[in-house]
Amino acid sequence: MMRTFGPALALAVTVALGAACRESRPNPDNVLPFGFLDSPANGAAVARVTRVAGWALDDGRVSRVDVYVDGRFAGSSTPGLLRPDLVAAYPAYPDAARGGWELAVDLGEREGGRHILAQAVDDQGATRDVGTASVTVAGRP
Ligand SMILES: [Ca+2]
Question: How far is the CA of 7 from the centre of ligand 1 (A)?
């Protein structure tokens, strides 16, 4: 006597395909992260390896801040640096005390202008640009 697995197999395939095809839609109740790029200042002359720093907050949690240089991904930072100034400005955000982030970014050997973009990503994958700066990489003296 043969056992048939037809219906069970069809159900398993349907469930697997459904999971693979399901789109993750933005949660309308989620608030985008926000923040600021403190450094470098717009228009600054900077070294090839430059500290990029600021702060970011979210109604949930900021997963990371991604930094792009001339449209290319350059690195990520996770907020966690002490920022007591944010507690006073944003008391409703429990992570405000450690909302600071920073990372060292290598801007490359070429002298001249670069465009830096910082983008915060929250725990639901929602993003917001939190700052930009156009800087000039200074040559060696
Ligand atoms: Ca959020």
Answer: 42
Q: In the 3-class helix/strand/coil scheme, how is the chain assigned residue by residue?
A: CCCCCHHHHHHHHHHHHHHHHCCCCCCCCCCCCEEEEEECCCCCEECCEEEEEEEEECCCCEEEEEEEECCEEEEEECCCECCHHHHHHCCCCCCHHHCEEEEEEECCCCCEEEEEEEEEEECCCCEEEEEEEEEEECCCC
What spacing in Å lies between the alpha carbon of 88 and ligand 1's midpoint? 20
Ligand 1 centroid to Cα of residue 126, in Å, is 7
Asked whether the predicted pLDDT for residue 47 surpasses 70, the reply is yes
CA of 139 to the centre of ligand 1 (A): 41
Average pLDDT, integer, range 122-133: 97
Question: Would 46 be classed as within a structural domain?
Answer: yes
Residue 81 included in any domain: yes
Structural domain total, the chain: 1
pLDDT at residue 16 above 80?
A: no
Q: What is the pTM of this model?
A: 0.81
Interval between CA 58 and ligand 1 midpoint (Å): 5
Check whether 3 has a pLDDT greater than 90. no
